[in-house]
Amino acid sequence: MAAPPVIELDDVSLGWRGRIAVRGVSGAFRRGSLTAVVGPNGAGKSTLLKGIVGLLNPLKGHIRLADDPRRDLAFLPQANELDRSFPITVYDLVAMGAWRRVGAWRRFAGEEHERVEHALEAVGLSDFRNRIIGTLSGGQLQRALFARLVLHDARTLLLDEPFAAIDRDTTEDLMRLLAAWHEEGRTVIVVLHDQEMVRARFPEALLMAGQAVAWGPTESVLTLENLHLARHLCAGDYL
Ligand SMILES: Nc1ncnc2c1ncn2[C@@H]1O[C@H](COP(=O)(O)OP(=O)(O)OP(=O)(O)O)[C@@H](O)[C@H]1O
């Protein structure tokens, strides 16, 4: 029997300043699924994720979430949307992932401290715990942000181009972490441009081009025909 839906989209349209960027998407992400969201530049992939996490209200249609979005949904936006000038340490950035459990002002228990140390170790940043985040390289910052996701411990994770402009080793390490979340039964949705990685590591895919072109098992989504259609619909560069 198919797993129950975690996120259901019913004829969802989303846009910016009255202009539609994503039109009429219907379908569901099922509990425990690992899905890559792919498509040309400007296809509406980021817009769709922002709609799901509640940063953008649908212009039309409904988005239904099975879980409490404040506790069970974690979102990692594109790196360029992050303010790195805030003077906090790697440790504090990672610890912030726990605030839904701990509360903003309550005491940070020893157990949470251990969780932070464990997460830093998992991403290879134990020696960087006291560094100010503005001094990190792109790959190190992405590792720290993944550690923060570990602390968040959400049932569903949405990540927008987490491997953009980072080196191969970091990508491989973080991909392993992502695969582990999937193995733990979490629902994972990732915007990606690397088609090879999608085919090799993601069982499901959603191909966007201002609308959902195809959604389902990756090999049935990333067909030449669908990819041509997506390119045609966006009339831009593909992947
Ligand atoms: N904050 C914004 N304000 C106005 N328009 C926006 C905003 N963000 C995105 N758009 C527009 O919405 C459309 C979809 O953009 P979106 O960023 O969702 O695409 P994408 O598939 O994630 O693209 P990319 O692969 O280039 O990151 C584009 O036409 C874009 O210009």
TrEMBL record:
Coiled coil: none annotated. The keyword Cell membrane applies. GO terms for molecular function: ATP binding; ATP hydrolysis activity. Belongs to the ABC transporter superfamily. It comes from Pusillimonas noertemannii. InterPro entries: AAA+_ATPase (IPR003593), ABC_transporter-like_ATP-bd (IPR003439), ABC_transporter-like_CS (IPR017871), AztA-like (IPR047748), Metal_Ion_Import_ABC (IPR050153), P-loop_NTPase (IPR027417). This is Zinc/manganese transport system ATP-binding protein. Residues 7-234 form the ABC transporter domain. Keywords: ATP-binding, Cell membrane, Membrane, Nucleotide-binding, Transport. CDD domains: ABC_Metallic_Cations (cd03235).
